[in-house]
Amino acid sequence: MANTMLHINHIAKTFNPGTITEKKALLDVELTLNEGDFVTVIGGNGAGKSTMLNAVAGVFPVDSGKIEIGGVDVTHLPEYKRAKYLGRVFQDPMTGTAATMNIEENMALAMRRGQPRGLKWGIRPMEREMYREQLRTLGLGLEDRMQSKVGLLSGGQRQALTLLMATLKTPKLLLLDEHTAALDPKTAAKVLELTEKIVAEQKLTAMMVTHNMKDAIAIGNRLIMMNAGRIVVDVSGERKKNLTRAEVMGLFEKAAGEELDGDRLLLS
Q1: Is pLDDT at 40 greater than 80 in this prediction?
Q2: In terms of residue numbers, what domain contains 213?
């Protein structure tokens, strides 16, 4: 029996309740990810995709419901206390790294994630060698630039480094929030390829929010689609592998009960 790595138990979230800008962002969301699941999450703007990811990461408290990561109830844990269970890569390549520190120092920070502060900062030769090996697997030549400031790297190099940092200490759950959206198509494809490789090699459990229907269908073993704060489609296994774009749109229209212009969903 596979272990449950993430259980989102009927969570709800409303922003600015009782005001003119009230937004019901999540409505009774229920989702279970088993160990090794790689779930892609798709939906139009405001569907709740990033809100769900942020709820899991602890960016804000949920109004109701419960969140468990690897069997641990994290519902009331602040973001920094959840960090030891999670790896995260954001949409903005600038977010996941410290620009003024070099590559090696960034990796050392990631390595010490979730440990008490005040640890000896010195990077041992053995540790340095491990970072070099890890960087080599990216195939971007970063292993020869370990003393370079991260701020000097390209967006794609930074995202690849962030991905590596997010998975250095094998997380219970890897959260990818449109992590290739800011990159050019060729670089995005490279980062996605690295993502699949790392997830497969480390047998990670991952959840990837994307606007790209093609990627959502091609990657992972399960696809969920959100609409108006709810999960409306959940397809996995062989059925997901053989999905076409038209079928996904058909499922969505049936579930959401509305006609939807495919391009609007994809490009919104």
Answers
A1: yes
A2: 4-85+171-267
